[in-house]
Sequence to fold (357 residues):
Amino acid sequence: MIGDTIDAQKAAEAKKLMQDAQHVVIFTHMGPDGDAMGSSLAIWHFLKANGEGEKDVTVIVPNAFPSFLAWLPGADQVLVFEQQPDVCAARIAEADLCICLDFNDPKRIAQASDHLVQNPCPKILIDHHLDPTDFATVTISHPEASSTCELVYKVLSAFSIQPSGASEHSEIGLQIATCIYTGLMTDTGNFSYNSNNPELYEIIAALMRAGIQKDQIYDRVFNQSTEDRVRLTGYSLYRKMRLYSEHHLALITLSIDELKQFNYKQGDTEGIVNMPLQMEDIFYSVFMREQEPKPGTTKNVVKISFRSQGDRPVNIMAGDVFRGGGHMNAAGGEYYGSIQAAAGLFLREYPKYLKKE
Ligand code: 5GP
Ligand code: MN
Fold:
């Protein structure tokens, strides 16, 4: 059975907490991606449909999500903490259950984190990042899973509620299935990595029986870019990619000014970091994007993404040098200062962390 990988006792505890709660807040990580949004909205639809009496359920994201996820059913109801801090803080304060999806440490929800931690209500964490910190009442953590959406599917199955099957012909079943498929697709690069588990395709088959239009979902996520976004991708690869061949490494950096030239919007650089790996002899790729200082601070923030192939961990360097972390082949972190300084630090440090082959 597909739900069997989930510890039955934890699933039962999570189910009871969800049944008992009246005011639920669902959180996901900073820079929400398809898995973050998909898992959050799947649980949101599920709770709204399965509440005994009307539950009040809110999804809160720390900052804006990209426009290529705005079509997800329910995305128009999501609150953005950065845009409405007071409204979000009030919702969090009155929550009697918090559900945390696709992150392993409250730090990953930025300013919302203090509000989450200060609320003594029960918390459920469902996640696939390594080593979650011990902040939740029920922690369902499976780093081997392709995505949090895979875990959400399994948790709902373990509740004996078919996220697809039983609700095959219902609109809500279809909405949940669509959200779940989006996370499976985006966190595996359209099933090109972390996607060797046959169970994944059993889940997809069930989602398709629930009525998802998988080709349409692909089109909505990947084929709706602006001209600026496609040209920014071209610029990044043609003008900005530097190769360090001894280490089979590519580095791309984009400054605030460069991003402005292409009318940068949240999500526009998503996916660029994976592209250098298309080259036959590149096994590591690093991408840096400079942002304006956070409110109340003066230093620019540089967001760093790491990717690698095979047995070449990048999460150690992301953690040690850039206060971040992540998975072996996909990690990230931050640097406070200019893009030049971030790149300088990276270039000094990478020989200690990346393999010379
Ligand atoms: P991305 O490069 O797509 O932003 O992030 C890839 C992965 O790296 C994420 O799934 C997450 O696991 C991890 N990650 C990205 N940024 C951070 C960060 O600032 N801190 C931590 N701990 N992990 C991050
Ligand atoms: Mn994920």
About this structure: The CA atoms of residues 144 and 196 lie 11 Å apart. Confidence is low (pLDDT under 50) at residues 164-169. The radius of gyration is 20 Å.
